[in-house]
TrEMBL record:
<dbReference type="InterPro" id="IPR050252">
    <property type="entry name" value="Beta/Gamma-Crystallin"/>
</dbReference>
<dbReference type="InterPro" id="IPR001064">
    <property type="entry name" value="Beta/gamma_crystallin"/>
</dbReference>
<feature type="domain" description="Beta/gamma crystallin 'Greek key'">
    <location>
        <begin position="123"/>
        <end position="165"/>
    </location>
</feature>
<dbReference type="InterPro" id="IPR011024">
    <property type="entry name" value="G_crystallin-like"/>
</dbReference>
<feature type="domain" description="Beta/gamma crystallin 'Greek key'">
    <location>
        <begin position="212"/>
        <end position="252"/>
    </location>
</feature>
<dbReference type="GO" id="GO:0007601">
    <property type="term" value="P:visual perception"/>
</dbReference>
<comment type="function">
    <text>Crystallins are the dominant structural components of the vertebrate eye lens.</text>
</comment>
<comment type="similarity">
    <text>Belongs to the beta/gamma-crystallin family.</text>
</comment>
<protein>
    <recommendedName>
        <fullName>Beta/gamma crystallin 'Greek key' domain-containing protein</fullName>
    </recommendedName>
</protein>
<dbReference type="GO" id="GO:0002088">
    <property type="term" value="P:lens development in camera-type eye"/>
</dbReference>
<keyword id="KW-0273">Eye lens protein</keyword>
<feature type="domain" description="Beta/gamma crystallin 'Greek key'">
    <location>
        <begin position="3"/>
        <end position="41"/>
    </location>
</feature>
<keyword id="KW-0677">Repeat</keyword>
<dbReference type="GO" id="GO:0005212">
    <property type="term" value="F:structural constituent of eye lens"/>
</dbReference>
<dbReference type="Pfam" id="PF00030">
    <property type="entry name" value="Crystall"/>
</dbReference>
<feature type="domain" description="Beta/gamma crystallin 'Greek key'">
    <location>
        <begin position="42"/>
        <end position="84"/>
    </location>
</feature>
Length: 256
């Protein structure tokens, strides 16, 4: 589910309303004033000037019947931007010390010695079981992970994380049978459960991601170890643990 916030002209959720599910640079395009709002999902940064300017105010899921009084604001919201957020907890079931993260983190040890559960409030994230975005990769989308190590069969807890930017538009990737973009080539624009069934390729060893963000898996039907690929050229998978990918899927904006 994507982020969603409903704005109302008057306090206590009265008057005309506007449902927003993405960044909005100028609220005046939809309503002349806004004095209350209801954040149904996601985390948002609100601004008292258009184009994400002026004072900033952080809103998370909840009802804001009179946010101007609550935050001591002199101007109402004029623009808004959805932001990614994940909360990590030391122990399972969201217990122990916590750390709220709103962007890439190369070393979780800077904030907590261990992490055994997390809550993804908004965004899509790649988690790694070693610092500096190394080791095995795991994809997390919006939801609660009370014991993610058991869920994903992990032997080590999360040590670093990377936020995956939302992509809207077309998806395009070329996969190659051999390294350095050699051998059989196929251009993909949608998910593929099994490259052997679709293309008669036993494996692929290089790729060029032109549009969108993708997950690639070592086994058919999106199983086994995975790696995250953003736009760029990947001439050889040999330096990625020698993985041979058999299925791949797009990271869709509807997952945010």
């Amino acid at each position: 589910m994507m982020g969603k916030v409903t704005f109302y002209e008057d306090r206590n959720f009265q008057g005309r309303s506007y449902e927003c599910m993405s960044d909005c640079a100028d609220m005046s395009s939809y309503m002349s004033r806004c004095h209350s709002c209801r954040v149904e999902s996601g985390c948002w940064m609100m601004y008292d000037r258009p184009n994400y300017m002026g004072n900033q105010y952080f809103f998370r899921r909840g009802d804001y019947a009179d946010y101007m009084s609550m935050f001591g604001m002199s101007e109402c919201i004029r623009s808004c931007r959805m932001i990614p957020m994940v909360t990590f907890f030391e122990d399972r079931n969201f217990q122990g010390r916590s750390y709220e993260c709103m962007g890439d983190c190369a070393d979780m040890h800077s904030y907590m010695s261990r992490c055994h559960s997390c809550r993804v409030d908004s965004g899509c994230w790649m988690m790694y079981d070693h610092p500096n975005y190394m080791g095995n990769q795991y994809f997390f989308r919006r939801g609660e992970y009370a014991d993610y190590m058991s869920m994903f069969g992990m032997s080590n807890c999360i040590r670093s994380c990377r936020m995956i930017p939302m992509h809207r538009g077309s998806y395009r990737m070329r996969i190659y049978e051999r390294e350095n973009f050699m051998g059989q080539m196929h251009e993909m624009m949608d998910d593929c459960e099994n490259i052997m069934d679709r293309y008669r390729m036993s494996h692929c060893q290089s790729c060029h991601v032109m549009d969108g963000h993708w997950l690639m898996y070592e086994q058919p039907h999106y199983r086994g170890k995975m790696l995250y690929f953003r736009p760029g050229e990947y001439r050889s998978f040999s330096n990625m643990g020698g993985m041979r990918f058999m299925s791949m899927r797009r990271i869709m904006d509807s997952w945010y």
